């Protein structure tokens, strides 16, 4: 096990009706609130009204920033930073999924930075201070509600880049599984794939002795495999929504990565796809993951695949190790297909055209430093397998 | 899954050499430090010197309170509170195992209380404020390094009572697995049993849909079963010590109990044994646990035992459910015996004499509210099975 510094400071109010804690939490941080959200869905499903009821208080002034896109854009963050400075915002209230929370993180940091917020995306070390963030989660997927990361897109430059910092971790997150009841089946499936990809990318590592972390990761994967299909079929199944929501937070809050070495592989490959084609992140991850697994399976990695196959998928441990590995990869593919995810790039509108340039960027921007180092040629092959 | 408010604020510096972070952490909280520790073991194994080297700073004044007993006594806490008030202590530095950290928690709260600290043990709601605590852990067992609980003994009244509060959670804990290398085999085994008991008491609950929590609990149990015997045989096996240490913290920091209902059963029964006979807590837990399991096995509880047997001990799931349950209980007993724990009360000097009165107290003080409610007669029978 490697050394680590554990810090998961977010306080979480988890469960039905926990929105009732919002007013008190907001007032802990100040008076002027920037409410950040996406489109009209939180107005249609009533969450907006419940939030506004909590903010209806003589001590609270609400300013709104709406229209945050699914792959959040630098322009929205720029607007938010401007509002923070003009309105002397004390606390940012992010109501939505990962995109809204991610965008809020950049706004929170940008409020204390004099230059263009895009600088902070390019260089996280410039982030010295940030406004406190409270999140109200409406989609189980990115885990942004308990971590310090954000992914921001710049459509002018076709960039989709990650940034992060300890001080960007939300101070408080309200996680009500009922708030995800109206998430449609395809987004529920994509969210499940996103969660599973976070776990898989973390689980495939080379560090000796991170036994507990690996068992935790397997627990999270089993939870997604158990409840993803239920949530897709029965959107108002509370325990399915609750388990997915809590698994999503733990998939990336550090619990399974502290003590290991995480080399992201599939995420950098997918980020190019959604930067170029604006596809749903979780769908891209689901398409690429089993192809990536097939590509990296070797004498060196097969042991990890055996753990994965036996402990996660319940494959008979007495079989040949490559047989176990290949069965596990097949089960991974079948699982994503079974919850309705389109499993080929062509189905989501991606053809050969930009594969070369995307492969080059993906390798340079992270896949080279993954669990198995991926060159441009490796990435290109994985993309082609995924067509 | 039940509603919960998650809050695990302790920052942890985990791994070899992390003591180097101590000076900076102490100075974050102030100048006057009360160093709390047990006997001479930290002087013999060099930990005391490493701590003092960190505290050797012109901005730090050290006051010492030593001699904290394995079942920490109210008298030590009274001495500590007096020191805090006289020396204007800013931060308490607890160097030791759970007893030292537990005692430090009462001191931390007592520093802000005008009456006798024992009042705070009897009534946790009197705890309004507390000094910050930094712990340097030297024994993997109680999990006190990441939770808000403490157990304090009053030998005059034969009382051993739990107390707790969110503000008693250590702010920072330094967990260096090498600091447990000198823990002898019998204490390593008892610590492993203590950790496993925390997990088992949490795992046996009635709440529907706490699937992820149960898988996490099984992960922790598997970790103890894997590494307990290794640490007993190879005291300087880093990964064994590291996995046990991290499992011990997660066993009781809330991660597996948030969202469930925890009814402690074996702990209240054991607390009477160690209050009356001052035996090692973990040994008492190991002796009682398999007998408690046998006593509560029924049509109503057998399903939980099947999960436990199949997922933790790898028992064939196609067997009869009661057969699985009984095999799991037997494996639990055999495991504790295999790591050298004396598995009968007589072996640790306990006979029939006080069983009745202990059974009465154990039932009243908690076992009545356990996973299966235990009357005085139930407890007495479990004690007798354990003789």
TrEMBL record, chains A, B:
<dbReference type="GO" id="GO:1990362">
    <property type="term" value="F:butanol dehydrogenase (NAD+) activity"/>
</dbReference>
<dbReference type="InterPro" id="IPR056798">
    <property type="entry name" value="ADH_Fe_C"/>
</dbReference>
<keyword id="KW-0560">Oxidoreductase</keyword>
<feature type="domain" description="Fe-containing alcohol dehydrogenase-like C-terminal">
    <location>
        <begin position="188"/>
        <end position="386"/>
    </location>
</feature>
<dbReference type="GO" id="GO:0005829">
    <property type="term" value="C:cytosol"/>
</dbReference>
<protein>
    <submittedName>
        <fullName>Alcohol dehydrogenase, iron-dependent</fullName>
        <ecNumber>1.1.1.1</ecNumber>
    </submittedName>
</protein>
<dbReference type="GO" id="GO:1990002">
    <property type="term" value="F:methylglyoxal reductase (NADPH) (acetol producing) activity"/>
</dbReference>
<feature type="domain" description="Alcohol dehydrogenase iron-type/glycerol dehydrogenase GldA">
    <location>
        <begin position="9"/>
        <end position="177"/>
    </location>
</feature>
<dbReference type="Pfam" id="PF00465">
    <property type="entry name" value="Fe-ADH"/>
</dbReference>
<dbReference type="InterPro" id="IPR044731">
    <property type="entry name" value="BDH-like"/>
</dbReference>
<dbReference type="Pfam" id="PF25137">
    <property type="entry name" value="ADH_Fe_C"/>
</dbReference>
<dbReference type="InterPro" id="IPR001670">
    <property type="entry name" value="ADH_Fe/GldA"/>
</dbReference>
<dbReference type="InterPro" id="IPR018211">
    <property type="entry name" value="ADH_Fe_CS"/>
</dbReference>
<dbReference type="GO" id="GO:0046872">
    <property type="term" value="F:metal ion binding"/>
</dbReference>
<dbReference type="GO" id="GO:0008106">
    <property type="term" value="F:alcohol dehydrogenase (NADP+) activity"/>
</dbReference>
């Amino acid at each position: 096990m490697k050394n680590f510094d554990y810090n998961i400071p977010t306080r979480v109010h988890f469960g039905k009706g926990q929105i009732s804690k919002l007013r008190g939490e907001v007032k802990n941080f100040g008076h002027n609130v920037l409410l950040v959200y996406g489109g009209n869905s939180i107005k249609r499903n009533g969450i907006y009204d419940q939030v506004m009821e909590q903010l209806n208080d003589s001590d609270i002034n609400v300013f709104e920033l709406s229209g945050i896109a699914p792959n959040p854009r630098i322009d929205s963050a720029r607007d938010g930073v401007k509002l923070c400075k003009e309105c002397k915002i004390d606390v940012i209230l992010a109501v939505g999924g990962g995109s809204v929370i991610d965008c809020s993180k950049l706004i929170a940091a940008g409020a204390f930075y004099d230059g263009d917020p895009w600088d902070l995306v390019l260089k996280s070390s410039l982030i010295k201070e940030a406004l406190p963030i409270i999140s109200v989660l409406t989609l189980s997927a990115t885990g942004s509600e308990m971590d310090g990361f954000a992914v921001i897109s710049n459509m002018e430059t076709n960039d989709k880049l990650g940034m992060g910092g300890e001080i960007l971790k939300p101070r408080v997150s309200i996680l009500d599984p009922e708030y995800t009841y109206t998430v449609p089946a395809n987004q529920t499936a994509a969210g499940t794939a996103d969660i599973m990809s976070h776990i898989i990318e973390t689980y495939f590592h080379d560090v000796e002795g991170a036994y507990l972390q690996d068992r935790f990761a397997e627990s999270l994967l089993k939870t997604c495999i158990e409840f993803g299909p239920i949530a897709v079929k029965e959107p108002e199944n509370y325990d399915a929504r609750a388990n997915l929501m809590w698994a999503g937070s733990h998939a990336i809050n550090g619990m399974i990565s502290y003590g290991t070495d995480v080399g992201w592989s599939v995420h950098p490959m997918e980020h190019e796809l959604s930067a170029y084609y604006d596809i749903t992140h979780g769908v891209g991850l689901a398409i690429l993951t089993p192809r990536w697994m097939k590509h990296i399976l070797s004498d060196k990695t097969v042991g990890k695949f055996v753990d994965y196959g036996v402990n996660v998928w319940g494959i008979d441990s007495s079989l040949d190790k490559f047989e176990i590995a290949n069965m596990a990869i097949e089960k991974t593919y079948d699982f994503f297909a079974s919850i309705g995810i389109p499993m080929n790039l062509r189905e989501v509108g991606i053809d050969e055209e930009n594969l070369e340039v995307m492969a080059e960027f993906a390798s340079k921007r992270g896949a080279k430093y993954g669990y198995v180092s991926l060159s441009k040629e490796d990435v290109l092959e994985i993309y082609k397998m995924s067509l």
